[in-house]
Amino acid sequence: MHQKRVISAVLFLPLFFILVKYLPPAAFFIVVLFGVLLGQLEFYRLYFPAGKRGLILFGLLCGGLIVGHFYEQGFFSDREVLTALGMAGLLYQLATYQDMATTLGDTAVAALGVFYVGWLLGHLILLRGLEQGEYLIFFLFLVTWAGDTGAYYIGKGFGRRPLAPRLSPGKTVEGAVGGLAASILAAVLARQWFLPFLSVYDGLFLGLLLGVLGQMGDLTESMFKRSAGVKDSGHFLPGHGGILDKMDSLIFTTPLFYYYLLWVKQYGRVIVI
């Protein structure tokens, strides 16, 4: 398992750097769109192992439309898009329902998949669209993955006290502390290296905040998987599980980082006087 993780990382990192740094934003959009749709599909398969194909396809369509909306800003507001999709989803269920006993649960799962994966992870497109967006993406991924890696290896080597045994028996308090330390160190070094407009305080605070939220994102996906009785969301990435297993922390850290820049740093926000 360890060898597969290392090989996957060695192969992925250069491709990721080229994608973000040198390819046009449209290429990044396509990759994020693919990741969102695959992540949504993995999420739906946790609860709809067989059947419900029409509802799954409708959920994927809504997730794709949200990512497309983030890429092509200006036609409709976020409120208009969410209102239209929400009403369309309810009307779809009204027109196609078959079992009254499962309709409420099916509708809730379909909507959660759109929000949890499509809406939250789709903020990668908004982040990439900001000035110096490629470096913001590097910062986000570096800090988030440093936290994941630190938690994994410190937990494996020194973990003794379980962190949340009912959700994820393998996670430990020592691993969580190691992950936070790795996130903070990565954030401080990254802002010094390629994001000097962030202060040292920003680096420390973002490292802590992203580290905590990344682990909360990991535990949230563990909660969903345990509810469904599975270990991994999929097998797309050797040694890492599914796309959702690798992106679970980013689902929480991406919108947090974006809105921190927007509201705390006033970065990329137009203020009307």
How is this structure best described in words?
The protein is mostly helical. The chain has one domain. It has a two-stranded antiparallel ribbon. A hairpin with a 3-residue loop joins strand 1 and strand 2. The longest helix has 29 residues.
Global structural class: mainly alpha
Write down the domain tally.
Answer: 1
Strand order of the largest sheet: 1-2
- H and E order: HHHHHHHEEHHH
Largest sheet: 2 strands, antiparallel
Task: Provide a brief overview of the structure.
This protein has ten helices and two strands, in the order H-H-H-H-H-H-H-E-E-H-H-H. By secondary structure, it is an all-alpha fold. The longest helix is centred in the C-terminal third of the chain and has 29 residues, at about 200-230.
Descriptive key words:
273 residues; single chain; mainly alpha; two-stranded antiparallel sheet
Task: Tell me the layout of helices and strands.
Elements: H1 2-21, H2 25-47, H3 53-71, H4 78-96, H5 100-121, H6 123-128, H7 133-158, E1 162-164, E2 168-172, H8 173-194, H9 200-228, H10 243-264
Antiparallel strand pairs: 1-2
